[in-house]
Amino acid sequence: GENEIDIYIQKRTMIPPRAAVRVARNLILTKARSTSPALLTAAVTQAPLLRDYSKLASAYFTGVRVPASLIAGSSLGILFRFVNEDLNNKSRLEIFCWQLYHVAMIMSFFLSLSATILATASSVTVLHGKFNPMAETAYMLLKREFEYEFVVTRWSFLMGLLSFTVGVCDCGLMEFGLLGGEGADKHRNSWKSIGRVLICATLGIVCHWLSYLNSTLYCYGNLFVMTGDVLRLMVMRGLERRNPMQILSLGFLVAAAFQAIRGVVGTKKQHGTYH
């Protein structure tokens, strides 16, 4: 009878909610028209195993706040390290690294801070409970019920981490005079050798991270494709909810990216002249 089917499905799938049991029971009764154990086993085995992953979803947003906060704090701590640097009599390469350093650290700070804020707010959304907690995996639950929060939080954290790495590399090049600046003439070959080691090591680590991270994105081919989807989600969220602040935010972010690129690759120098 139907009670035996309920008991069998509960034992087989370990799905406690009665709603899930009712759907599976009706599907079996409609299509199978039989209570044969063999037929029930085949039907239930082919059905996806759904579980309540709401706790894991909340744990993800809670866990990402700690490393994001550490990166934001570290970026802020060294953001103004070279603000008073005298750019007169500096080479074009030194000025380029000076500009890239500040852009990378500013991006690292704001992206990591954004990941922290979004993760905190998303944890409250999970606690609110107005969503379907049943899914095959915790990843599928986050992608289905919290796509904007999940994708934007993860992208902000990853991009903040990469920006922080680039900034630290630039900091090392400038701090230790590896660009052949003042005081490096006596040991110019040694400085250049150390600079090449630092640059190659940083590029190797970043490429390794990108290779592995791209393999764990699952829904995206690589981080650049994910970046495009983040922009799409921000635009759609602003249009669907008719939120002018979201559209305004996207406009300012695009303007900031344009100004950052313009400042780094610009050919004019504000202090002194290029050599």
Question: Describe it for me?
Answer:
The protein has 275 residues and is mostly helical. The protein has a two-stranded antiparallel ribbon with strand order 1-2. The termini are far apart. Helix content is 74%, strand content 1%. The longest helix is centred in the middle third of the chain and has 37 residues, at 92-128. The radius of gyration is 26 Å and the shape is elongated. The protein has ten helices and two strands, in the order αααβααβααααα.
Low-confidence stretches: 8-18, 271-275
Largest beta sheet: strand ordering: 1-2
Taken from the alpha-carbon principal axes, the silhouette is: elongated
Order of helices and strands: HHHEHHEHHHHH
Q: Please, how many helices?
A: 10
Strand count: 2
Relative helix content: over 70%
Distance between the termini: 88 Å
Q: Overall pLDDT, averaged? A: 78
Structural class: mainly alpha
Q: What is the rounded Rg?
A: 26 Å
**Content of β-strand:** under 5%
* Biggest sheet record: 2 strands, antiparallel
